[in-house]
Amino acid sequence: MKALSVNLDQKRKGTYYSDRMHRILSVCQDCGLLWHDERVTYRNGQTEIRRVDDIQPTDQVLVTPHYEKYGLRVNPRVLPRLRSMASQFAYALNVPSAAVEVDGNIVYVRVPRPEEEGGGVVLFEHAWAIAPDIPRGSVLLGVDEDRHQLVLDLTSPSNVHAAVIGMTGSGKSTLMRTMILSAEMIGGVKVALFDPSDGFRPLSGHPSVWRGGLFKSAEDCERGLEALASSIGRGMNELTFVFVDEVPELIMRRPAIRDYLARLAQAGRHAGIHLILGAQHPLASELGPMTMRNIPVRLVGRVADRSAAYNATGRSDTNAESLRGKGDFIVVNGSTLQHFQAAYASPKLLAEWARRYPPREPRVPPRPVQARAIQHLAPASGFGSRGVGGRPLDDIPDFVVREIQRYIREHGRPPSSNWIYRLTKETLPTGGFNRDKARRAMAAAGAAFAAPIETSTPEEVA
What is the domain class of 122-356 according to CATH? Predict the structure, then answer.
């Protein structure tokens, strides 16, 4: 251990890191993991007891903006027990939390640094300057623990879509703005922006922004995502990055958005469309497990607890609940797990970008409301046709027809029979319509939609 202390002292200041490594090894010794006795029997019948080291320290400590990483070489026989000792290490080192991670043949004890020592902020300009020639189809994330630039290649078959998950203060929106800004600076792609919180507005005026601006209201977001989903299969394979923040809020206000996102996640790659979804908590409950399986990349910041960390990453060993926030993230893709510090686009940089490319309102695509409403009805109702058999439609009051038409225009689907029953019960002296009469009322309302149906052309979608 003396050689270790000298070696560490040569690489780091004072004996601070050596003292912490000694404490880690003391915990391992107290728990009976540092070494074990092994009996060796020779051919001549003699036996010998040898002491075998199960845990040996490496000769350096890795220091990142947020953490110190103490490396150990570990015998596989004690590895399972060692991975469960994070709380013991935290207690011995007098820190709020610690984590045990396996990286190749080295096991690291990750210890958080004091806030005043590890500033941790990495400016967008500094991260970009490390390697400014980022290829088309990639976006900048930040820097990894070795201070190398970290980018995400969304055109790779294993990285087709991504989800950015983190609670308030994690840096989720900061990371998404960094990704958007880098995509606009790299060029060669369309960038579609959907954000009810208006956080993407400074970046919404660039010429590469799809349909010219930021979609903010839930209704406009629904129309835009519907147009993107409808463009799949039309031969429009222009590379498009779709950034959608606050996904749970949008789905709560417009449930149809769930279906459009599922369609884009399933088949968007073949049309050159790649999703980047943002949320403050795991998305499986909103999007469903099938859709989440089509989103392989998870960029996870600080989450509430271990359960949320598992739901966000699909793994139990990420320790995402112990992340520091303020841009401290992990990227998870299958068996790959990597820590990184998200690049920070400062308000000054965003203001300069907005001054250069003033934000604009989007060209909201028209919505084929009537077509979908007519196809949704059962054929037996004869909706939209005057030539159906049955009782005449003259006994349907005009105001009922107008109310049904207004409902279809606002909601994009026909009302239920119960809705028509409640409407007519409150307004007609004869009482509410039964199911048969409600269907005939919808048939009368459908006659107004017999004209050519408004749809989105490929030019309008682009």
Answer: alpha beta
